[in-house]
């Protein structure tokens, strides 16, 4: 059974642990370096990236997470989690840092305010024929995709909202809120490889 950490500093941690448990994985809340060291993969939830950044430094998790990413640990980041995985963050709050790992630039809050949240369906060819139902809540958009990263999904207007690089998956939206499990399954698949 894959032990999958959910970074539990801030954000929608519980939705992710539910989906992981439903898939037969063993979800582990990660707040300390020792907890990170004991997992096979990591989910970085949605929330507020500047807060996740600040707390991860306060809890001495920033460097261990960067090292785990560099060593190839599979990581799924949703919304704020995608921001944390991006090498470059546009419209960052003063001094905000990311873990990095994905050769992409993302712009925070690219879809406007909380009240402009929306739900839509997306074609994600990598996940098969059935469209993904995606919830956007003040999500980021991917504005640059470097040579090492791949686009997994775009909106109808062409804006990039899902990317992948090796064992890293980054989503602008929240599959965990709409009950979409296939990105978590893909993460578990990366653990098995
Ligand atoms: N706007 C948030 C941020 O910049 C992300 C929103 C979310 O995770 N739903 O971190």
Automatic annotation (TrEMBL):
<feature type="binding site">
    <location>
        <begin position="137"/>
        <end position="138"/>
    </location>
    <ligand>
        <name>L-glutamine</name>
    </ligand>
</feature>
<dbReference type="GO" id="GO:1903600">
    <property type="term" value="C:glutaminase complex"/>
</dbReference>
<dbReference type="GO" id="GO:0036381">
    <property type="term" value="F:pyridoxal 5'-phosphate synthase (glutamine hydrolysing) activity"/>
</dbReference>
<dbReference type="InterPro" id="IPR029062">
    <property type="entry name" value="Class_I_gatase-like"/>
</dbReference>
<keyword id="KW-0456">Lyase</keyword>
<comment type="pathway">
    <text>Cofactor biosynthesis; pyridoxal 5'-phosphate biosynthesis.</text>
</comment>
<feature type="active site" description="Nucleophile">
    <location>
        <position position="79"/>
    </location>
</feature>
<dbReference type="InterPro" id="IPR021196">
    <property type="entry name" value="PdxT/SNO_CS"/>
</dbReference>
<comment type="subunit">
    <text>In the presence of PdxS, forms a dodecamer of heterodimers. Only shows activity in the heterodimer.</text>
</comment>
<dbReference type="GO" id="GO:0005829">
    <property type="term" value="C:cytosol"/>
</dbReference>
<dbReference type="GO" id="GO:0004359">
    <property type="term" value="F:glutaminase activity"/>
</dbReference>
<keyword id="KW-0378">Hydrolase</keyword>
<feature type="active site" description="Charge relay system">
    <location>
        <position position="176"/>
    </location>
</feature>
<feature type="binding site">
    <location>
        <position position="108"/>
    </location>
    <ligand>
        <name>L-glutamine</name>
    </ligand>
</feature>
<dbReference type="InterPro" id="IPR002161">
    <property type="entry name" value="PdxT/SNO"/>
</dbReference>
<dbReference type="GO" id="GO:0042823">
    <property type="term" value="P:pyridoxal phosphate biosynthetic process"/>
</dbReference>
<protein>
    <recommendedName>
        <fullName>Pyridoxal 5'-phosphate synthase subunit PdxT</fullName>
        <ecNumber>4.3.3.6</ecNumber>
        <ecNumber>3.5.1.2</ecNumber>
    </recommendedName>
</protein>
<comment type="similarity">
    <text>Belongs to the glutaminase PdxT/SNO family.</text>
</comment>
<comment type="function">
    <text>Catalyzes the hydrolysis of glutamine to glutamate and ammonia as part of the biosynthesis of pyridoxal 5'-phosphate. The resulting ammonia molecule is channeled to the active site of PdxS.</text>
</comment>
<keyword id="KW-0663">Pyridoxal phosphate</keyword>
<dbReference type="Pfam" id="PF01174">
    <property type="entry name" value="SNO"/>
</dbReference>
<feature type="binding site">
    <location>
        <begin position="47"/>
        <end position="49"/>
    </location>
    <ligand>
        <name>L-glutamine</name>
    </ligand>
</feature>
<keyword id="KW-0315">Glutamine amidotransferase</keyword>
<feature type="active site" description="Charge relay system">
    <location>
        <position position="174"/>
    </location>
</feature>
<dbReference type="GO" id="GO:0006543">
    <property type="term" value="P:L-glutamine catabolic process"/>
</dbReference>
<dbReference type="GO" id="GO:0008614">
    <property type="term" value="P:pyridoxine metabolic process"/>
</dbReference>
